[in-house]
Design goal:
single chain; alpha+beta; five-stranded mixed sheet; four-stranded mixed sheet; 16 helices
């Protein structure tokens, strides 16, 4: 494949689907890093194994994906982050979970290990050693200059939101540096996956980040189906897409209102909240759960539409189409909100491309990537929709991407309802060994899940990568030069997942 042209590979893993996995040695690993640095490929994922590190690459067209595996001899591997900053946090997570050391890494501070686990490197060895020493206090990066002061925020915040620490260095009201300290919502999902049945693992996957339960369910099902060499029935694929678009609608509507609320425009918050609640109630009516958890399983789906659900969906589409355009006009013509959102929290296009930022963060900054289109997956290859892309990269652009995606989701739901095929909801799942990679487009961007199944069809290893891994660092860059009071606005416009990021 063109993506790997010029990269020395050692052997191809036979049972890895649908995209290939190759083992590499030092020269192949470093050649792949060269490709990331010069922009010929994008880092799609980086995760650990008992004694190996896996790196997923995607080409700039979004059509080709490949996984490279570096088998460590002494528990170390050449650092990707030394030359390619998007890899720094994944490498720190690998060190925390597996004890594998990136050689010459620019940042060796622990990421997920806060020093409270009774064992270090819980995923590295089968019998990891108990912790015998206390961890050193976390050291934030310094900043030098006249008149600088620090503002610590979190990890506990006002309101019912997830925990995360934000350390601001400011000159007066202007932010000089923001550094995030995350990991507070680490749940040990990948540890819990080991030895799990497919049923249990599917439930764990959709709870990795509850607001993206459907997207994680789709990505996990795709990974398992690829590993087993099977496909779900057409009706199941259309039902999955219907759930995914309802999920996208609910969270985009909620985000648009919440961003405006952080700029003191409470009317938009209230009105968008009504539409979000209406969407969640339709999801509950059609699938028995507001967040549609556990509706997707390897092989298909677990619930079908009932007799009157099609009309419920049609009435819902008419309602949203009647109300939403008026809210868009209200946002567009209110100068006070535009004053807060336009030019605030700018993500530069070059950074969006370098970090492979997905979702509205990337598309608002010129990176045209949506994995429903490329590499693409059914049934989206048979549906018609546009991918909105803007260049400004500011809070306003991220709102407009959401607005346009709401419009596209309404069209997609209409097409799905009109074309819903008859037939089975699931296909038989036969347990056997294999490896698979699945990708799905969540409302905040691409979700990647990689699984390795043992001979009994149980989970031997599973890695789940949220879009937030490559979005959180961009928030640090976007807030520089803005005032401290604009941080909530910028942060909400990103709306990165804590839970999906912390695993």
């Amino acid at each position: 494949m063109a993506l790997l042209d010029g990269i020395p590979t050692r052997s191809k893993v036979a049972k890895h689907r649908p995209w290939p996995r190759f083992t590499v040695e030092d020269d192949g690993w470093r050649s792949a890093i060269d490709r990331l640095v010069d922009g010929r490929a994008t880092l799609f994922g980086l995760w650990g194994d008992t004694s190996a590190v896996h790196m997923a690459l995607i080409d700039n067209s979004g059509r080709e994906i490949a996984v490279l595996t570096y088998e460590t001899q002494d528990g170390s591997f050449p650092s990707v982050g030394q030359r390619h900053p998007p890899a720094i946090r994944p490498e720190r997570a690998i060190a925390s979970l597996f004890g594998l050391t990136p050689i010459d890494a620019p940042d060796v501070r622990p990421w997920l290990d806060f020093g409270v686990w009774d064992r270090r490197h819980p995923l590295g060895k089968r019998t990891p050693g108990k912790r015998t020493t206390k961890s050193e206090p976390y050291s934030f990066l310094p900043a030098e200059g006249e008149g600088l002061h620090q503002i610590p925020v979190g990890p506990v915040h006002a309101g019912t939101i997830e925990p995360g620490h934000f350390r601001f260095t400011a000159n007066g009201e202007h932010v000089v540096r923001l550094e995030q300290r995350l990991g507070y919502t680490h749940k040990g999902v990948e540890w819990l996956m080991r030895g799990a049945t497919l049923e249990k693992a599917a439930r764990l996957a959709c709870r990795t980040s509850g607001d993206s339960a459907v997207a994680y369910g789709i990505a996990f099902a795709q990974a398992v189906e690829a590993a087993l060499g099977m496909t779900a029935p057409p009706r199941a694929l259309y039902l999955r897409a219907l759930m995914a678009e309802l999920e996208r609608l609910a969270h985009h509507l909620g985000d648009i209102g919440a961003i405006c609320n952080d700029a003191s425009f409470a009317m938009m918050h209230a009105q968008c909240g009504i539409l979000r609640e209406r969407t969640l109630r339709v999801a509950d009516a059609c699938f028995g759960h507001r967040l549609m958890m556990d509706m997707i399983a390897p092989g298909g789906v677990t619930r079908d539409l009932a007799g009157g659900d099609i009309q419920v969906l049609k009435d819902f589409l008419a309602e949203i189409r009647g109300a939403f355009p008026r809210l868009v006009e209200l946002y567009d013509k209110t100068a006070s909100i535009q004053d807060r959102t336009v030019t605030a929290g700018v993500v530069k296009s070059a950074l969006a491309r370098q970090f492979g930022a997905g979702g509205y963060v990337g598309r608002a900054a010129g990176r045209a990537f949506d994995c429903r289109k490329t590499p693409g997956y059914a049934p989206y290859d048979a549906l018609s929709f546009e991918m909105p892309v803007l260049e400004a990269g500011d809070v306003d652009a991220r709102i407009w991407i959401r607005i346009r995606e709401v419009e596209q989701s309404l069209s997609l739901i209409e097409q799905i309802v009109a074309r819903m095929p008859a037939g089975a909801l699931s296909a038989p799942v036969k347990a056997k060994a294999g490896e698979g990679l699945g990708v799905a487009e969540a409302f905040r961007g691409d979700v990647l899940i990689w699984v390795r199944l043992d001979d009994d069809g149980l989970i031997e290893r599973c890695h789940l990568r949220d879009a937030s891994w490559f979005q959180w660092p961009l928030l640090e860059a976007a807030i520089e030069g803005n005032i401290v009071a604009d941080f909530p606005l910028c942060n909400k416009s990103f709306n990165c997942s804590y839970s999906g990021h912390d695993l």
